[in-house]
Amino acid sequence: MKLVLRILLVLLVAIGVFALAGVLATWAPDRSVKQLSERWALPPSSFLPVNGMQVHLRDEGPREDPNPIVLLHGTSDSLHTWAGWSEDLRRQRRVIRFDLPAFGLTGPDPRNDYSIAAYVRFVTAVVDTLGVKSFVLAGNSLGGQIAWATAVAHPERVVSLVLVDAAGYPLQPQSVPIGFRVARTPGLRKVMEFVLPRGVVQESLRNVYGDPSKVTPELVDRFYELTLRQGNRAALGSRMEQKLSGDESQIKTLKVPTLIVWGAKDRLIPLENGRRFAADIRNSQLVVFDNLGHVPQEEDAQATVKAVRQFLGLR
Question: pLDDT per residue over 15-27, tens digit each?
Answer without folding.
Answer: 333 333 334 346 7
